[in-house]
Amino acid sequence: MNSEPAEIDGLLDRLRAGDTAALGALWGYYRPRLQRFVRLRMDNRMATRVDPSDVLQEAYLDAQRQVPAYLRDARVAPFVWLRRLVEERLANTHRQHLGAKCRTARREVLLPKDSSVALGSRLLAAGPNPSARMRQEECCRRVQQALERLRPDDREVILMRHFEEMSNQEVAQALGLTESGATMRYGRALVRLKEILLAETASWRTGP
Question: What are the angstrom distances between the C-alpha of 187 and each of 119, 126, 163?
Answer without folding.
Answer: 14, 17, 15
